[in-house]
């Protein structure tokens, strides 16, 4: 039986992952003959790490997903720098830009998304390309362009105060640029944050040298000068980085008359309206998730690989709970689930702690004792713990404040100020299970120094870390009853 | 060295730290006196187990006569009768069912001499391939990972005292404050410098010492290691010169770690991205830094890959093979190191040789005076061996030395059933352990202080333990037992000596030229106080305290990065079994507890099994602190008393595994095996928690309990 021909259009985070997942299940190509078509000339790279490249902490080489011999080692027919011009559904064939064709038994669209450029006057040149001094932040090439253009000390404007825009802003500020974020909504990251959290975040960014102009549209871009804002303000900028959102790349799907809404519509089997054609990642629209994040794309790739290789033909994608994590040095932000719930909401429990002066904000939304949503700014431990509770559906600890403050307090008793305050049953020497009570008894039996207590009880003869405590108890007892004579043995 | 006025210099019989102490002299019914002795590993410290270790020498629970099952009951028998019976049954069973019908199971507490002679006994006297040991349950994952990365596995490739100078130590899945308390002295400087980082799902006494406690969800250690490596790369902390000159394979390992950025790792592990970065930075910025792993991170179905992931981190930071830095694994059992080197493992021959290597077979066969073709090949690994006992294809008889699998093996209820299905179970032990209680023949043997032998401690140093006391009337050494059986199976007397030094001299020759070469170690040198770390290839060689300073043990001299990815535990919690159980130890008990539960002071300190539970989780199950609970997995149900621990994750419970009968934590554990090391997944299984009706409460402490 000859293997099925699977063609994947798109060699980004989703397409590359799908190829890996297919080969993990079908390492020798017994079930699937795999062709991957990528429009960019280079091997797939990890888009999530672009902000690290921009920040200068990671090299271009380290964000590549595959080595140059990857396709050969895994038996993948990889076509780089090749674009697809059309899909012939009746003939089950895709047409490439050079006129050649690929037949398929199953086709996967992993075409991703494109940066959306807002209608600010002057951002686009007459031919529709970006004007000089304007760059989107979407691809590795964009990243390299930004690095080349953003000379240290130069003013840079970032259009868009969403996740990606802020990561770019933080990276540029870290490189020594004077960064202004222009955002049309009244607070940053409005999809993930409530206004209070947005204010704390803006304040934190301000301390890192990033200015935020909120609730105002950029009206006009003047090359070499900067942005003119709708409120009459002016933002000087040698470079404008556009990060105002993305649009799913659906051109091929639309051309093939597949159902397209905001993205290519797919069901739980990741099928489009043509059951031989699938879509995953940013270009796909599934009711259970939002686009623009890698986790859903990777989970979709695993499900689709199960189906395409026959490893689990009944596999279904049911959506991915979204946890947003800002990856920006010195800014710790997590947001998940329902965040736009007020404290006085009647059908949910909402707990909120605010400490804006120290860049902290924590909000927890609970339903039926479980985490339904949270915003955590400047609270890394709480973010980690609450994310786990959310993902695993674990009931939240009853001490909500401790949860929001982060790390649970140590189980061991807080060291007592004086040995007098210790209960007699408390273990002083763990290595030899010696309690304070036993030490007191030994002292009263005439072992009045730490050394004598050690030989009588073995306290402090293991790891030795309780030596000071034993000395302290000997001193305290000596002071407490200096006159008491040593008992006869 | 040498005897002090108060007794003979020796080492503690329990863990791999092998604390120096003196014992004796004996005084009738009272236990011989134990005193700590200054020795590099323990510096005069002893924990409660060490202090009380001589109690068992005079315990009334001690066996002093062989026992033979007769009409369903064990009755005393003479040595002649017992050994004759065993030999006769072996011969019958092998004649009827083939050589592999008889299996051997050893232990990581046996001396080098015993481990060596046991392997030889299996291969030469029984000619069975079916031999493995309980070290498969502790050391095998780290050993395999160490071998892959460095070309040779020695737990600590440096003396333990090197840690004294460390500014930063990353301790992964290790709880030495309870498992080897005097060891923590060597962490003091790092702790004082704010450089002690502990990775443990529980806030253990060791974690309390740390500046940074990373508390991952059980079974997610591999992801955490990848996150730390990612953070090291992202923050420019990689020692690029070292990686270029001394390693290979970084690229492939990084391609996988690149997908595990700290925020993603946080979501899987619950360890904050900030803490991951801090940990990487603490290690990278320290003048002297170490990464040490132990069972917590190794006892998983992906244990080898997990250990490899920690080694990859150490390599990226340029630690291994440099003075004042390194990676190491904290060996657990007393002779966990030597025990894995000299041939009681299914796939090995003495000197850490591989049994499928023709040159190794030829060398060892020559020492043993047999034809290499007569040596069996590799056999089943420990759990697979136990699982096969008494089945159509499996062994019909088992000879067991220094182990108590009814308590310590995973899925212990099933293992007890398999043991019960045997035609012949022979157990050599000091006391009637839970496994011995179900045996057909029980052979009473001597203890540490009553016999000569060598142990190899956690740093690869060979230690001589001299006989300090007379054994009780009626017991024999394991070497004498093997001799007696081998003679009855037609072996010449000289092939199975009863004198430990004679056996050791043969071991030296068998190990010569192998990775763990003991040929230059002699009783005389050890008695003279020399600190000999293997390899010691000749009698004028000073030993090798630090491995890899010039080169790693691969042919090209480079260490290998191994590309590894996270895959998570085999059994995830679900609606029926919503909690994760993880198992471990308490300070007062050792392994299956067969010995320590018989020491009154230790039994009084921790008399029964318990389960640590988050107070909210306990309350939800209708349990209060101190109540008796059942913990149930797909494989079994355990009784344990609830201890509410607020620092525990609400989705996790913890049980120690030292207790017998219905309190055996290993009734729960999942025997999913690592594909390379065949290590079972002791550290993660899915369970549920429920109260025990008042009437059924059984706080009774059973010291023994038959399995039949």
Explain this structure.
The complex is a heterodimer of chains A (489) and B (708). With 489 residues, chain A is α/β, with parallel strands linked by helices. Chain A has 4 domains: 4-114 and 247-309, FAD/NAD(P)-binding domain (3-Layer(bba) Sandwich), CATH 3.50.50; 134-244, FAD/NAD(P)-binding domain, CATH 3.50.50.60; 330-405, FAD/NAD-linked reductase, C-terminal dimerisation domain (Enolase-like, domain 1); 419-480, Arc Repressor Mutant, subunit A (Orthogonal Bundle), CATH 1.10.10.1100. Chain A is built from 13 helices and 27 strands. Chain A has helices spanning 13-25, 50-55, 70-73, 140-149, 163-174, 195-207, 251-255, 294-309, 380-392, 400-405, 436-444, 450-457, 467-480, and strands at 4-9, 32-38, 76-80, 84-88, 93-96, 101-103, 106-109, 113-115, 134-136, 155-159, 178-183, 210-214, 218-222, 226-229, 234-236, 239-242, 246-248, 264-265, 277-279, 284-285, 323-328, 331-337, 349-355, 360-367, 370-377, 427-429, 434-435. In chain A, the strands form 8 sheets. Chain A has a 5-stranded parallel sheet. In chain A, helix 11 crosses helix 12 (450-457) and helix 11 crosses helix 13. In chain A, 46% of the residues are buried. Chain B is of the alpha/beta class. Chain B folds into 3 domains: 67-137 and 338-460 and 477-514, Rossmann fold (3-Layer(aba) Sandwich); 152-330, Dimethylsulfoxide Reductase, domain 2 (3-Layer(aba) Sandwich), CATH 3.40.228.10; 579-696, Beta Barrel (Barwin-like endoglucanases), CATH 2.40.40.20. In chain B, strands 5-4-18-17-16-6-7 form a 7-stranded mixed sheet, with helices on one face. Chain B has a 6-stranded mixed sheet with strand order 24-26-25-30-23-27. Chain B is globular, with a radius of gyration of 24 Å. The two termini of chain B are 47 Å apart. The model of chain B is unreliable at 1-5 and 699-708 (pLDDT under 50). The interface between A and B is large, with 46 and 55 residues.
């Amino acid at each position: 039986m000859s293997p099925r021909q699977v063609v994947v259009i798109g060699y980004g985070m989703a397409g590359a992952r799908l190829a890996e997942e297919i080969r993990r299940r079908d390492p020798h190509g017994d079930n699937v003959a795999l062709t991957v078509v990528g429009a960019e000339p280079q091997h797939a790279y990890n888009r999530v790490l672009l902000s690290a490249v921009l920040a200068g902490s990671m090299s271009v080489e380290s964000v590549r997903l595959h080595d140059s011999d990857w396709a050969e080692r895994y038996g993948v027919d990889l076509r780089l720098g090749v674009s697809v011009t059309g899909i012939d559904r009746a003939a089950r064939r895709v047409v490439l830009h050079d006129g050649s064709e690929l037949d398929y038994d199953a086709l996967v669209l992993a075409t991703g998304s494109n940066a959306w450029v807002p209608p600010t006057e002057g951002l686009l040149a007459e031919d529709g390309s970006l004007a000089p001094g304007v760059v989107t932040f979407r691809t590795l090439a964009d990243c390299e362009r930004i690095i080349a253009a953003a000379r240290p000390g130069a003013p840079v404007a970032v259009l868009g105060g969403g996740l990606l825009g802020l990561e770019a802003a933080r990276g540029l500020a870290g490189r020594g640029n004077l960064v202004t974020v222009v955002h049309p909504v009244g607070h940053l990251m409005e999809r993930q944050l409530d206004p209070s959290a947005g204010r704390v975040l803006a304040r934190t960014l301000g301390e890192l040298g990033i200015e935020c102009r909120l609730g105002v549209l950029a009206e006009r871009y003047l090359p070499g000068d900067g942005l003119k804002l709708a409120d009459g303000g002016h933002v000087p900028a040698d470079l404008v980085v556009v990060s105002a959102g993305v649009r799913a790349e659906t051109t091929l799907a639309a051309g093939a008359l597949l159902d397209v809404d905001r993205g290519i519509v797919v069901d739980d089997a990741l099928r489009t309206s043509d059951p031989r054609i699938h879509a995953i990642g940013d270009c796909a629209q599934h009711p259970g998730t939002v686009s623009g994040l890698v986790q859903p794309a990777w989970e979709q790739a695993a499900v689709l690989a199960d189906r395409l290789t026959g490893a689990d033909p009944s596999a279904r994608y049911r959506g991915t709970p979204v946890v947003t994590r800002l990856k920006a040095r010195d800014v710790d932000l997590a947001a998940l689930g329902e965040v736009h719930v007020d404290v006085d909401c009647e059908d949910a429990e909402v707990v909120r702690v605010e400490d804006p002066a120290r860049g902290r904000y924590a909000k927890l939304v609970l339903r039926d004792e479980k985490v339904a949503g949270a915003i955590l700014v400047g609270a890394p431990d709480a973010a980690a713990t609450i994310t786990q509770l959310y993902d695993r559906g674990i009931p939240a600890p009853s001490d909500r404040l401790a949860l929001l403050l982060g790390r649970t307090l140590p189980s061991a008793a807080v060291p007592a100020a004086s040995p007098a305050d210790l209960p007699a049953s408390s273990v002083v020497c763990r290595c030899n299970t010696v309690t304070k009570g036993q030490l007191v008894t030994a002292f009263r039996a005439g072992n009045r120094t730490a050394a004598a207590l050690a030989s009588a009880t073995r306290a402090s003869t293991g790891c030795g870390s309780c030596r000071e405590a034993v000395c302290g108890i000997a001193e305290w007892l000596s002071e407490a009853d200096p006159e008491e004579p040593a008992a006869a043995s | 060295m040498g005897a002090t006025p108060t007794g003979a210099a020796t080492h503690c019989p329990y863990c791999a730290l092998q604390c120096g102490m003196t014992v004796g002299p004996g005084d009738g019914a009272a236990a011989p006196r134990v005193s700590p002795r200054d020795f590099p590993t323990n510096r005069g410290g002893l924990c409660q187990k060490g202090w009380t270790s001589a109690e068992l020498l005079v315990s009334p629970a001690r066996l002093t006569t062989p026992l033979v099952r007769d009409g369903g009951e064990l009755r005393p028998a003479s040595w002649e009768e017992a050994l004759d019976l065993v030999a006769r049954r072996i011969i019958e069973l092998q004649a009827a069912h083939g050589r592999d019908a008889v299996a051997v199971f050893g232990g990581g507490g046996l001396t080098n001499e015993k481990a060596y002679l046991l392997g030889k006994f299996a291969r030469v006297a029984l000619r069975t391939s079916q031999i493995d040991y309980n070290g498969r349950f502790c050391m095998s994952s780290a050993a395999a990972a160490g071998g892959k990365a460095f070309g040779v596995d020695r737990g600590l490739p440096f003396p333990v005292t090197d840690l004294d100078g460390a500014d930063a130590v990353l301790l992964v899945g290790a709880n030495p404050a309870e498992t080897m308390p005097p060891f923590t002295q060597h962490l003091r400087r790092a702790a004082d410098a704010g450089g002690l980082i502990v990775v443990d799902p529980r806030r253990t006494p060791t974690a309390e010492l740390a500046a940074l406690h990373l508390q991952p969800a059980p079974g997610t250690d591999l992801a955490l290691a990848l996150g730390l490596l990612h953070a090291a790369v992202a923050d420019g902390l990689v020692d690029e010169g070292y990686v270029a000159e001394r390693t290979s394979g970084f690229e492939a390992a990084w391609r996988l770690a690149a997908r595990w950025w700290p925020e993603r790792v946080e979501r899987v592990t619950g360890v904050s991205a900030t803490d991951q970065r801090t940990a990487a930075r603490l290690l990278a910025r320290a003048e002297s830094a170490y990464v040490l792993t132990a069972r917590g991170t190794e006892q998983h179905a992906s244990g080898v890959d997990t250990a490899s992931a920690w080694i990859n981190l150490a390599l990226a930071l340029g630690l291994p093979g440099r003075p004042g830095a390194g990676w190491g694994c904290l060996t657990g059992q007393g002779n966990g190191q030597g025990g894995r080197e000299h041939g009681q493992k299914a796939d090995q021959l003495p000197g850490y040789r591989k049994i499928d290597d023709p040159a190794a077979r030829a060398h060892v066969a020559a020492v043993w005076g047999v034809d290499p073709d007569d040596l069996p090949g590799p056999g089943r690994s420990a759990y697979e061996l136990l699982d096969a006992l008494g089945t159509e294809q499996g062994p019909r008889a088992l000879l067991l030395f220094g182990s108590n699998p009814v308590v310590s093996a995973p899925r212990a209820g099933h293992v007890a059933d398999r043991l019960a299905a045997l035609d012949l179970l022979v157990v050599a032990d000091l006391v009637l352990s839970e496994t011995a209680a179900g045996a057909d023949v029980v052979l009473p043997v001597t203890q540490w202080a009553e016999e000569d032998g060598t142990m190899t401690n956690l740093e690869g140093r060979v230690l001589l333990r001299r006989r300090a006391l007379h054994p009780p009337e009626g017991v024999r050494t394991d070497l004498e037992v093997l001799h007696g059986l081998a003679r009855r199976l037609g072996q010449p007397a000289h092939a199975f000596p009863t004198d430990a030094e004679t056996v050791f001299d043969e071991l030296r020759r068998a190990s010569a030229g192998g990775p763990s070469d003991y040929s230059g170690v002699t009783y005389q040198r050890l008695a003279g106080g020399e600190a000999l770390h293997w390899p010691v290839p000749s009698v004028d060689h000073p030993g090798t305290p630090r491995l890899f300073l010039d080169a790693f043990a691969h042919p090209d001299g480079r260490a290998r990065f191994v590309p590894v990815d996270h895959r998570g535990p085999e059994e995830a919690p679900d609606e029926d079994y919503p909690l994760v159980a993880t198992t471990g130890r308490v300070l007062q008990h050792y392994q299956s507890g067969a010995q320590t539960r018989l020491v009154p002071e230790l039994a009084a300190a921790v008399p029964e099994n318990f389960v640590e539970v988050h107070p909210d989780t306990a309350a939800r199950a209708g349990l209060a602190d101190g109540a008796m609970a059942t913990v149930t997995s797909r494989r079994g149900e355990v009784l344990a008393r609830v201890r509410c621990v607020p620092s525990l994750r609400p989705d996790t419970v913890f049980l120690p595994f030292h207790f017998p009968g219905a309190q055996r934590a290993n009734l729960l554990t999942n025997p999913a095996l690592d594909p390379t090391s065949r290590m079972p997944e002791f550290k993660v299984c899915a369970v549920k928690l429920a109260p025990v009706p008042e009437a059924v409460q059984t706080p009774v402490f059973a010291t023994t309990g038959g399995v039949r």
